[in-house]
Amino acid sequence: MTNASDWQGTVGRSWASEWRRTDVSFSDLTPKLLAAIAREPGAAVADIGCGAGELSIAIAEARPQAQVTGVDISADLVDAAGSRAIQPNLTFELADASQWQPASRPDLYVSRHGVMFFSDPQAAFAHLAAQAMPGARMVFSCFRKAAENDWAAAIAALLPKGDSPPASPTAPGPFAFALPEHVRRCMAGWRAVEFAPVDFRYIAGTGPDAVGEAMALFGRIGPAAAALRTLPEAERAAVEMRLAELVEAHHRDGVVAFNAAAWLVSATSDHNDG
Ligand SMILES: C[S@@+](CC[C@H](N)C(=O)[O-])C[C@H]1O[C@@H](n2cnc3c(N)ncnc32)[C@H](O)[C@@H]1O
């Protein structure tokens, strides 16, 4: 489980310091998401859970006439996004999207894996619909099941089994939106909800030190990171060794990559002002 306060604390700080690597990790997914967004109208675009802003920046570049706003709950990530963006039609705002009051009403919401962390997703999606133009569109990506995402399943398998009972599969977190029927229930205020499966390569590392890059990524981001932060020294060393073996096994031609599986979800706001 990963919730709002995790993003406002350690997890957000890790993503803010690792944004170059997290952008690389999504680099096979991002063009597919951008292609889906390109078919959508939108003059006021809001990127929900924008993180360090790569998607917002790409949309602001592609749509110079549009006003693009990236919204995120992590101050570290909003700072990281602001430090790399120069487009005049792009702003970043620090806010909980479930309570965000936009200056101008979006007609298109987008998100790259930023909408699965709401503690009350139905209230959050209803709020987003109410803030938007009538008939606004939404397009976002989210992971399918952990079992379909080799990087997550393989890393989880090499971690020590904890004593705590497993969290609910729909608890806020990276895999909370794996099940379409659950997503439909969460998307209060939205209709015509459609799911397109997208398989992509999760790029953990590239370049002359691809293995080192992947180890650095997994040391700060994802399921191994929390364990490496909290385990006693001996267990931590054992996890690091197994992680290094896993990464080596996925290293080919200067790239460490894992199979990953996502949904591209699109919907239309059901809200009207009357
Ligand atoms: C998996 S990261 C994705 C970040 C970014 N979209 C990307 O693709 O790099 C999830 C993002 O959602 C943000 N987030 C989580 N809950 C949020 C909320 N209630 N309101 C706004 N942002 C939120 C986190 O701070 C984080 O930046």
Automatic annotation (TrEMBL):
GO molecular function per UniProt: methyltransferase activity
Keywords in alphabetical order: Methyltransferase, Transferase
CDD domains per the UniProt record, alphabetical: AdoMet_MTases (cd02440)
InterPro entries assigned: Methyltransf_25, SAM-dependent_MTases_sf
SUPFAM superfamilies noted in UniProt: S-adenosyl-L-methionine-dependent methyltransferases
Domain Methyltransferase: residue ranges: 45-130
Domain of life: Bacteria
Gene Ontology annotations of biological process type: methylation
Annotated protein name in UniProt: Methyltransferase
Protein's organism: Novosphingobium subterraneum
